[in-house]
Structures are given as structure tokens and as C-alpha cells.
Automatic annotation (TrEMBL):
<feature type="site" description="Contributes to redox potential value">
    <location>
        <position position="32"/>
    </location>
</feature>
<dbReference type="GO" id="GO:0005829">
    <property type="term" value="C:cytosol"/>
</dbReference>
<dbReference type="InterPro" id="IPR036249">
    <property type="entry name" value="Thioredoxin-like_sf"/>
</dbReference>
<keyword id="KW-0676">Redox-active center</keyword>
<feature type="site" description="Contributes to redox potential value">
    <location>
        <position position="31"/>
    </location>
</feature>
<feature type="domain" description="Thioredoxin">
    <location>
        <begin position="1"/>
        <end position="105"/>
    </location>
</feature>
<feature type="site" description="Deprotonates C-terminal active site Cys">
    <location>
        <position position="24"/>
    </location>
</feature>
<dbReference type="InterPro" id="IPR017937">
    <property type="entry name" value="Thioredoxin_CS"/>
</dbReference>
<dbReference type="Pfam" id="PF00085">
    <property type="entry name" value="Thioredoxin"/>
</dbReference>
<dbReference type="InterPro" id="IPR013766">
    <property type="entry name" value="Thioredoxin_domain"/>
</dbReference>
<keyword id="KW-1015">Disulfide bond</keyword>
<keyword id="KW-0813">Transport</keyword>
<feature type="disulfide bond" description="Redox-active">
    <location>
        <begin position="30"/>
        <end position="33"/>
    </location>
</feature>
<feature type="active site" description="Nucleophile">
    <location>
        <position position="33"/>
    </location>
</feature>
<dbReference type="InterPro" id="IPR005746">
    <property type="entry name" value="Thioredoxin"/>
</dbReference>
<comment type="similarity">
    <text>Belongs to the thioredoxin family.</text>
</comment>
<keyword id="KW-0249">Electron transport</keyword>
Length: 119
């Protein structure tokens, strides 16, 4: 599955409706973002059951601000509408694969209980 562009118009829908959503926050002038892009794209093709989205922080400044993005690239993962991972920096392919497997392996009942306990 190819990476999809996320915007103010479709971000919330994807967070709510996609079982697993990975989001890459990037900008065209960002060297590490350009280095990470092929790794992210390859992972999207290798994991067709996951939605891979990207947010251009220059074009979607309000969305980036709402997400608290302070450095790019930043990778976020949502599972069943819950933010379960957020980390700045370009991940090498093996680390990205580890994140994907960890997100897949989460017990979401346990995650929701932890979120409620923090709330």
C-alpha cells in the first residue's frame, strides 16, 4: 500500500477508522526526512494491512502544532484510535520494523485501561 497524504480534512477520520495508522511528519527541506522517506515507503509496501500516512509540516502547520511536533521527522503510531508511539528522528529499517511489530502486538484492552488510569 502506498503512503497516503494526511491533512486537516482527513487526519481524524484515519485515526478513528484505521486499525493501525503510522504517521510520518516531514518537510521538503529536511535532510533526515528525505533519508527516511524510502525506508517508510518500503515498510508501507511490506505491510499492506497498515495505513501509512505522511504529513507535510509546511503545508499542515496547524496539524503539526496540534500534534506537538517540535522536530522532524517524527513518527507516530495510532492503534484503534489511540496514540501508542511517538518518536522524533529517522529510524533505520530494522527499528521501524520493530515499532511495527510492537504496535501489532499490543493488547489494546490493556492499553485503554492504562490510558483511563492516566486520564
Amino acid at each position: 500500500m502506498a503512503t497516503i497524504e494526511l491533512t486537516d480534512a482527513n487526519f481524524e477520520t484515519h485515526v478513528k477508522e484505521d486499525d493501525i495508522l503510522l504517521v510520518d511528519f516531514w518537510a521538503s527541506w529536511c535532510g533526515p526526512c528525505k533519508q527516511f522517506a524510502p525506508t517508510y515507503e518500503a515498510a508501507s509496501e511490506a505491510n499492506p494491512d497498515i495505513t501509512f500516512g505522511s504529513i507535510n509540516t509546511e503545508e499542515q502547520q496547524q496539524l503539526a502544532a496540534a500534534a506537538g511536533i517540535q522536530s522532524i521527522p517524527t513518527l507516530m503510531a495510532f492503534r484503534e484510535g489511540v496514540l501508542v508511539f511517538a518518536q522524533p528522528g529517522a529510524l533505520p529499517a530494522p527499528a521501524l520494523d520493530e515499532v511495527i511489530q510492537a504496535v501489532r502486538g499490543l493488547d489494546m484492552d490493556e492499553v485503554r485501561q492504562q490510558v483511563e488510569a492516566q486520564g
